[in-house]
Amino acid sequence: MFVKKNKSSSTATLMVLLMLPFQMILSQSETSSDFRKTVITRDFLSEGVATGDLNKDGQMDIIAGYYWFEAPSWKRHEMAPSRIFDPRKEYSESFLNLGMDINLDGWDDVVIIDFPGKMGFWFENTKNKPGPWPKHIIADSMGISNESPGFVDIDGDGRIDILCGDLEKKQIVWLQAPLKPGEIEWKRHALSYENVAGTNQFSHGIGLGDLDADGLDDVVVTDGWFKGTSDLKSGNWEFHEADLGEPCSHMQVLDVNHDGKNDVVSASAHRLGVWWHEQLEGQNFTTHLITNTTAQTHSSIMADLNGDGRSDYITGKRFLAHNGNDAGDGDTPYLFWIEFTTEAPYFVEHPIDSNSGAGLNIAIADMNKDGMPDIIIANKNGIFLFENQIQK
């Protein structure tokens, strides 16, 4: 049900085209001509993925779990002992990844979010020296409860933080990366009270954005939202119950229908559907289906793929999410993006690929330095780079 946007088409024609099967639109190739696909490996190493210039040669490398792939040859390197996993029998030891200079020494390091409920950790770059990378625990061994923690800048200092639930205290928190050169400790800061919604082990769905238009970011979960304050360490953000859909992946906050009120976009983590939850008066919400093309869209990210100044929504199927034990687990592993438009129905779907899918997080980076954001994927189907060739 994907179609390329035709600016001269009427809304009625567009709606008909949106109902066409995905297979009919991508009948000539498994990859859209808008992207150049590179298969880095078909090995299952990680469902997290990230980028960073790990060897300081001026080129962006690809990170997948305990491995990194050196650009431009994509030679494989190991940060710590690991192995190839069996996608039909086991999970990897790496669910989400992030590349950033954590200890501010000028070298990119690697964050690993492990199985839900376990502690996060990071590997310290050895600066091109041989041997395993030193491993550091994040936030005093706090268990990260939910399946889709957010990599976001909570305090606006330009540094990426981790938005998540504390497994033990059932509390919405953010983990702050070190702020001074040489520091290695992340700091835990509470936003909500203890024992709140969206913080159980395997909780699905969390996001950050200004829902009530007061100029301050709020935290959204599927059961509602926590009203943000200027105090990012208070632990007293009040919860407002709302129906923001079923268990999902990363939740995105944006004004879909241009009515001045921010809405929430989410995608089903293990079932079927991508939706936008329209904000009505009084912070009530009604849900609209965007697509039911594929199930288990267990990650999402926003990026301006087509250069029109508006952020687009990228997601895809988590192939063999539960090792082939769910209905549709092994169906076609689609990867696609949704363009948000100014006229109803306010979105157009576009295919990227039908033999990759997505994992538990998606990375965006300008890998080839052409000024366009590219897409990097890691999952049970392998590791992939999609270079953006969309014509502006």
Which ranges are low-confidence, i.e. pLDDT below 50, for 5 or more consecutive residues? 1-24
Number of helices: 2
Helix/sheet category: mainly beta
Looking across the biggest beta sheet, what order are the strands in?
1-28-27-26
Distance between the termini: 23 Å
Helix content: under 10%
Note the run of SSEs as H and E: HHEEEEEEEEEEEEEEEEEEEEEEEEEEEE
Strand content: 25-35%
The count of DSSP E runs of length 2 or more, i.e. the number of strands, is 28
Shape: globular
Overall mean pLDDT: 92
Could you describe the largest sheet, including whether it forms a barrel?
4 strands, antiparallel
Tell me which oligomeric state these chains represent: single chain
C-alpha-based Rg, rounded: 20 Å
Describe this structure in words.
With 392 residues, the chain is mostly beta strands. It is 3% helix and 35% strand. It contains two helices and 28 strands. The strands form seven sheets. Strands 1-28-27-26 form a four-stranded antiparallel β-sheet, with no helix packed on it. The protein has a four-stranded antiparallel β-sheet with strand order 2-3-4-5, with no helix packed on it. A four-stranded antiparallel β-sheet has the order 6-7-8-9, with no helix packed on it. Strand 3 and strand 4 form a beta hairpin. The longest helix is centred in the first third of the chain and has 8 residues. It is globular. The chain starts with 10 loop residues before the first helix and ends with a strand. The N terminus is likely disordered.
